[in-house]
Design a protein that fits this description.
alpha+beta, four-stranded antiparallel β-sheet, globular
């Protein structure tokens, strides 16, 4: 995750990290889905904030939200990284370029089925290292929790996590 720690699922910068920041700022006890309304509106209002991404040292693009992922599912319902596998030695980068709020929301909606990756407003690729930059106060969220600010470098570490299974069909 760029801070010398290990993450299994996702690191996100941009709109979603701003939402997580807003929810954390207002939180008073357990989080209910209604806690997201005001932070979503605030984050979409800051849509001029851009995240710049590099993949394996090469410029990849900039957008409203960048997701570095090692799992295909995000937030339990979005197939944000449909080609991601936790054991392939690669990170998936999904960059929502934005442009307009309706366009961004449409692309996010397409992520329920993984079809967002063919949208002109989304860039998607795989690599071994992802660098994200933006405004210095831009938050980063890791696996749903705030975790510092940009800039950040994410690298894949094959074999860093041991997983025990039942031995019945597990790899």
């Amino acid at each position: 995750d760029g801070y010398g720690e290990t993450s299994v699922a996702n690191l996100v910068a941009g709109i979603d990290a701003r939402v997580v920041e807003g929810v954390a700022r207002r939180r008073k006890g357990p989080i209910h889905w209604t806690a997201y309304a005001a932070p979503v509106a605030e984050a979409l209002g800051r849509r001029g904030t851009k995240v710049k991404a590099k993949l394996d040292g090469k410029a990849f693009g900039e957008g409203w939200m960048a997701v570095a992922s090692n799992l295909s599912l995000y937030a339990g319902i979005l197939r944000i990284a449909p080609r991601a596998r936790f054991d392939d030695g690669l990170l998936d980068l999904c960059l929502f370029e934005g442009g307009s709020v309706p366009g961004f929301l449409k692309d996010l909606g397409l992520a329920v089925t993984g079809r967002h990756v063919t949208s002109p407003g989304v860039r998607y690729a795989q690599g071994r290292a992802i660098d994200l930059e933006g405004e210095p106060d831009s938050p980063v969220q890791v696996d749903g929790d705030l975790h510092g600010t940009l800039p950040v470098r994410i690298t894949v570490q094959p074999g860093a996590l041991r997983v025990l299974g039942s031995g019945k069909g597990d790899r």
